[in-house]
């Protein structure tokens, strides 16, 4: 029993250290806005604007930084509370379960937020990833190929299960879907 309690203490201490480190990072984004000591209410109500979060070194070069902020903000606008920020960093941590990462990847790629990844979502993803380095025809060809291979039921859009089936075959998904602070 003593070792069990000791283990709980170590876990609790590590969790507290992590939360404090994340709070410090969150506060650095807007020290004029984020209090040094946050109450539980402030953790869900004080919001750092999306443009400040997008400028974080960890996100600055990520072409999906805007969608990441929108996916984790409770109102979908991209401004993040501390709770939202902590959720995002938890999902992008190396320890996050694969199914949680897949869920949020789907949410990020579902640009029109209709619960499916359709052709327009794929085209938006391609435009975001390639930063217009490919022609519209090349985007169409890639979207056609993805649909041909992944749209199992042939309805012209990817359900979460179809997306999950494809993404889990990507060998580097887990290693690339993370952010370290």
Automatic annotation (TrEMBL):
SMART domains: EFh. InterPro entries: CIBP, EF-hand-dom_pair, EF_Hand_1_Ca_BS, EF_hand_dom. Gene3D superfamilies: EF-hand. Signal peptide: none annotated. GO terms for molecular function: calcium ion binding; magnesium ion binding. It comes from the Eukaryota. GO terms for biological process: calcium ion homeostasis. This is EF-hand domain-containing protein.
